[in-house]
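User: Could you go from structure to sequence for me? I need the amino acid at each position, not a summary. Structure tokens:
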């Protein structure tokens, strides 16, 4: 019996028969791709379509952002993020304020410019404070500290850890806001001791320190807001894991060609050695 005769007997069209027998290949690909997108979205809840597209390509998928956006829209995986600044800066002090020399820098390698900032983190019954130091070239967190106080020792601990890890040569620029913690004599003296040039943001302008602001937003949306830290010890352990194992080693950064900071640094060093 021919295909036409079978279709007539079964009261189906020939086109319908072939569609049922040979489903389009794209349908099967979308099933697998959709599953992979959901895995990435669960692992990285704050990733948008561009980062998810980049992560898919790193996993061997040949896909463009339009297809990813369509699937994410269909599965309600697209979301809007609202930026919020929290004031932790006390710039009403008598310490010297330094000009913003970081703004005109062109970064070509690590340890040219470090940026520093502070944010608060809520626990069940108290607030604690996180100070970080990032290498602006690679976005890598090179020093951090968590404490219950906003005293200068918080930022001093983060800076000492960065200095111990990176051991920068003289000439490095350190940029921060003009808060009392960063402007106090103990902190600026430590910077000068290592031959580090001091740079500070303009008054009331958080965008002068955009690299650190971007990190703080990622930290809040991808770690802090997903947790309910019971106490200081738990917050310390989970934030350490996020910074060292996730942010520095795994999280894709659009400014780094969708690579994690540690991978970006390795690639940059290898390129410099070849050159």
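Assistant: Here is the amino acid at each position, in order:
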């Amino acid at each position: 019996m021919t295909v036409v005769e079978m279709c007539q007997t079964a009261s189906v069209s020939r086109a319908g028969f072939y569609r049922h027998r040979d489903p389009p290949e794209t349908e099967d690909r979308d099933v697998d791709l959709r599953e992979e997108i959901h895995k990435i979205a669960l692992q990285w809840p704050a990733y948008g379509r561009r980062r998810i597209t980049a992560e898919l390509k790193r996993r061997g998928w040949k896909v463009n952002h339009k297809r990813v956006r369509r699937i994410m829209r269909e599965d309600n995986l697209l979301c809007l993020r609202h930026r919020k600044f929290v004031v932790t800066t006390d710039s009403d002090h008598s310490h010297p304020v330094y000009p913003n020399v970081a703004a005109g820098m062109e970064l070509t390698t690590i340890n040219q410019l470090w940026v520093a900032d502070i944010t608060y983190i809520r626990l069940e019954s108290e607030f604690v404070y996180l100070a970080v130091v990032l290498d602006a070239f690679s976005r890598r967190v090179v020093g951090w500290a968590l404490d219950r106080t906003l005293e200068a020792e918080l930022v001093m601990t983060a800076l000492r850890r960065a200095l111990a890890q990176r051991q920068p040569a003289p000439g490095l620029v350190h940029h921060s806001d003009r808060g009392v913690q960063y402007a106090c004599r103990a902190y600026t003296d430590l910077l000068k001791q290592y031959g580090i040039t001091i740079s500070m943001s303009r008054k009331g302008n958080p965008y002068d320190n955009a690299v650190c602001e971007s990190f703080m937003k990622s930290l809040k949306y991808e770690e802090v807001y997903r947790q309910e830290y019971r106490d200081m010890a738990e917050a310390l352990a989970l934030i350490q894991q996020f910074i060292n194992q996730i942010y520095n080693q795994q999280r894709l950064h659009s400014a780094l060609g969708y690579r994690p900071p540690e991978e970006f640094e390795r690639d940059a060093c290898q390129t410099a050695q070849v050159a």
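One structural detail worth keeping in mind: The longest helix spans residues 25-43.
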